[in-house]
């Protein structure tokens, strides 16, 4: 058997990457068209992507695998944004941060809706979905504890409960806002969310 050359290997890798992108794009288009993830079959994805079943399963384990990989771009965007997370920088900076969060979520709305839907019945997606929120919750907790140690946040604040409420509750609020608002209220929403975080937790009056 003739050995595989570097050029052949590169060509195969390029074709494989193109196939993966084609399948992911197909699912993205179906979701953008308003189809519910639970109603989209593998066969529907195959037809949209114009690939065979054998080709599909050579690259993906299931349609859930396609969805999880499709969220990688969203995750990378949010992770990059998280590097700018400075909760103690003040409400104005928090408002700008949340505006960016809403913008990113709006750009990936159909995928986020699918992930939230699938997370309700698929533990793989649920683990993937909650991992980032758990990390953000931990960051918020540590920043609250740090501010408490510095005397900036009142000591009577329960930092564990507060971080859970503002992070997990905030995620629910953002998801709902995007569903019911056309984008014109994003700035006001981000401002109010920032004010709630700032005055409700980070700089809540002692004994409030």
Automatic annotation (TrEMBL):
InterPro entries: Homeodomain-like_sf (IPR009057), HTH_TetR (IPR001647), Tet_transcr_reg_TetR-rel_C_sf (IPR036271). It comes from the Bacteria. Pfam families: TetR_N. One of its GO terms (molecular function) is DNA binding. Residues 41-60 bind DNA. Residues 17-78 form the HTH tetR-type domain. Keywords: DNA-binding. This is HTH tetR-type domain-containing protein.
């Amino acid at each position: 058997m003739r050995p595989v050359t570097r050029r052949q290997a590169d060509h195969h890798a390029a074709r494989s990457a193109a196939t993966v992108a084609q399948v992911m794009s197909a699912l993205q288009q179906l979701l953008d068209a308003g189809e519910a993830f639970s109603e989209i079959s593998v066969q529907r994805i195959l037809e949209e992507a114009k690939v065979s079943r054998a080709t599909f399963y050579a690259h993906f384990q299931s349609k859930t695998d396609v969805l999880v990989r499709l969220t990688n771009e969203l995750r990378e965007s949010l992770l990059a944004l998280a590097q700018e997370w400075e909760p103690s920088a003040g409400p104005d900076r928090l408002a700008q941060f949340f505006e960016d969060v809403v913008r990113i979520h709006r750009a990936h709305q159909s995928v986020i809706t699918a992930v939230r839907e699938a997370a309700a019945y698929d533990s793989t997606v649920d683990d993937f979905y909650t991992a980032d929120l758990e990390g953000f919750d931990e960051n918020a907790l540590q920043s609250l504890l740090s501010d408490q140690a510095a005397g900036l946040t009142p000591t009577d604040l329960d930092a564990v409960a507060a971080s859970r409420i503002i992070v997990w509750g905030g995620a629910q609020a953002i998801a709902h806002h995007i569903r019911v608002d056309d984008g014109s209220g994003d700035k006001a929403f981000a401002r109010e969310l920032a004010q709630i975080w700032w005055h409700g937790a980070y700089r809540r009056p002692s004994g409030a």
